[in-house]
Amino acid sequence: MILRRTGRRDTDILLDKECRSTRLESVGRPDGDRKRDMRKILESVVIAVLVLALFRTFFGIAYVSGESMGSVFREGDIILFRKWGTPEKGDIVTAYIEDLDYMVVKRILAAEGDRITIHQGKLCLNGKETAKAAAGKPDCPEICLPPDQYFLIGDHQDVSLDSRTFG
Length: 167
What we know:
Layout: H1 10-17, H2 31-58, E1 59-63, E2 78-82, E3 92-97, E4 102-110, E5 115-119, E6 122-125, E7 128-133, E8 140-144, E9 151-153, H3 163-166
Antiparallel strand pairs: 1-2, 3-4, 4-9, 5-6, 5-8, 6-7
């Protein structure tokens, strides 16, 4: 095989073979692709809004401030809670207190039909003294909880603003 040098560059050879001018009519994607991209963006936004609406309907977020639930939560903790179902005694719940314009995180001590008395620094539930003392809180005559009412109390009762304070 014999190689000869012609003095021409490869680009010159390519240009000689297929040198045609090309005019670009549009830069970017064709219009159909833009419409498809916009549709995908719109669909993503709609799905995100629907997921957010469903989340806000069935779940909530609360921030812990204070030490009243110190045995379970600390200051600054973030709680994700569900908004459905019937709470029971012993459950930790969130409640909105209108007088304080504030959301609280407390434990359910008593529910519908339970009787609560605070006397001489002792909290009695259905005639039995609970292990939890109500230190520093005023005495309270017996209360019988009506339907759909709960008595909420903080685990760290000495510093807790709860049903003993706001009703």
